[in-house]
Amino acid sequence: QVQLAESGGGLVQPGGSLRLSCAASGIIFSRYTMRWYRQAPGKQREWVATISSGGTPSYADSVKGRFTISRDNAKNTVYLQMNSLRRDDTAVYYCNVALGNAYWGQGTQVTVSS
Predict the structure, then answer these.
(1) Who is most buried in 1, 2, 93, 106, counting CB within 10 A?
(2) Which 8-state DSSP code applies to residue 1?
(3) 110, exposed or middle or buried, with CB in 10 Å at 0-12, 13-18, 19+?
(4) DSSP sequence for 45-113
(5) Residue 78: how many CB atoms within 10 A of its CB?
(6) pLDDT tens digits for 56-95?
(7) Are 50 and 39 in contact (CB under 8 A)?
(8) For all residues of the chain together, what is the average pLDDT?
(9) How many whole angstroms separate alpha carbon 46 and alpha carbon 71?
């Protein structure tokens, strides 16, 4: 079955950086578009970034220029490099793949605070 496992979250000061990872199994990873979403307390889940099977990225306006999505097909892993973090980036971050059904990982908490 499809499994997604996020890691790399934590507590970071404003202006700091984190790199999230999402390891996928149960799929031919290289064939699929991968996405990152996030959900802040009391808010709906929102899209953050997408990387196509060919490696083309796209970003929400709120993270453009600060976050970078990438993938390593040999490792079945998608990454989210987050720089210049702000307090409003605090959220649980999820990776996603859509195969008819949408599959989600368990999420990783990112807290930006001084």
Answers:
(1) 93
(2) -
(3) buried
(4) -EEEEEE-TT--EEE-TTTTTTEEEEEETTTTEEEEEE-S--GGG-EEEEEEEEESEEEE---EEEEE-
(5) 29
(6) 999 999 999 999 999 999 999 999 999 999 999 999 999 9
(7) no
(8) 97
(9) 20
pLDDT at 99 over 90: no
Question: Pairing between strand 57-59 and 67-72?
Answer: unpaired
Question: In DSSP terms, which residues pair with 101 in a beta bridge?
Answer: 99
From the number of C-beta atoms within 10 Å of its C-beta (0-12, 13-18, 19+), residue 44 rates as exposed
Asked if 39 contacts 59 with a C-beta cutoff of 8 angstroms, the reply is no
What tokens does 44 get? 């709906």
Angle at 73 between CA 103 and CA 35, to 5 degrees: 35
Strands 10-12 and 108-112, how do they pair?
Answer: parallel
Place of tokens 């990152």: 36
Handedness of CA 61, 94, 78, 28 (dihedral sign): negative
Give the Cα separation of 35 and 58 in Å (integer). 9
